[in-house]
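User: Hi! I'm a student and our assignment asks us to look at how structure tokens line up with a sequence. Could you show me two examples?

Assistant: Happy to help. In each example below, the sequence comes first and the structure tokens follow. Example one:
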Amino acid sequence: MSKSKILISVCLLLLIGMGVLFLLSYYDKESGESTINIETAEEATASNETEEKIVRKPGTVVYQIPGMEKVELVKDIVYKADKDVEQKLNVYYPLESGFKNKPYPVILIHGRTSDKNFKDSEYFDSWGRLVAAYGFAAVTFNWRSGTVPEDISDLLVYVKEHTEELGIDGKGIGIIAFSAGVENGVQKVLSAGTGVIDSIVSYYGKLPLSVLENNQGKELPAVFIAEAGLENYFPPDCNDEFVSKAAELGCDITEVVHPEGVHGFDVYTDDDKAREIIKESLTFIEANINK
């Protein structure tokens, strides 16, 4: 074989070898990039899961949903001044809603307490945030439980007359009442809010039979009754007569019992049944808007 042919063969072999090396390095590079991309995506997914994970603080409502920490809050609006004592309310708005979309208002009525600023307690604040994150405008307020139940009716009148200033829907109102706030609250809101209240949610409290008298029961809004099986204050059967008479009048009544729930099970009984009832109560309000 001539020297020129040998030289050509060597050059060809060198070129082939360089091509193989180039291809190997290219695929290694691509593989490396792909590996990096996959790891980055996995890290991003893990990061998102961490951000969306909800950690419940002690003393707050056991049912938590995304967005509770991002709702808009307007605090300390004076709804009543009595003998130089101001009674105030808070409004929680759905994220990025504020005064623009006028969300449907839900008023929360706390039970008997010695805390004069119970609306700002972690417990009631968490309820306000939950209701707003669900899509409503939550109204929490202080009222002098046990001494001035008229605060409740005055609050309702204020909300009805200031829907524009509060940036809420003025066509209807939902009510959530707790414990001793049920008996006082339901009486007062129905007397002051005739034709405006769409639904009432009662948590571990006694509903007043008086609202069913004199044919008033026929105008009773839809009522959701949530009771606790291990109740110390208002046993599950405390509303049996109310439910029976309301049914005779054709009222829309839904009654649920948490068999293992204690008084205040929405914060003290951290289980799936409690969360199910809380979610169901919010769905109930939504289903009865402006009916």
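Example two works the same way, sequence first and then tokens:
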Amino acid sequence: MDGGGSVEIEEFLMGCLRLRGAARAIDVSKIIHDQTWLIKTQGKFQTYVEEQMAGIQEEIGGLRRVLKQASRSVSGSFTSPSLGAVSTTP
């Protein structure tokens, strides 16, 4: 197939000829080989993505802790023992 969305007669005949005898066995062998490679590559990629996601989750957890601590610090700066809580609304 030439990628044009249609099959020319020559392409069709060549495809039919490839389905005969030894050529067919070689084609099936190539497909199995390619499929094995794809499965292995996909597995490696999946492992990589899972490791990256775990790292991102750890980073987000660290950022949450920092923000929580900063929020407490800011909240504490608006409280005075002699005045009580200072309103932050105008």
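Here is something you could point out in your write-up. The first strand starts at residue 79 and ends at 80.
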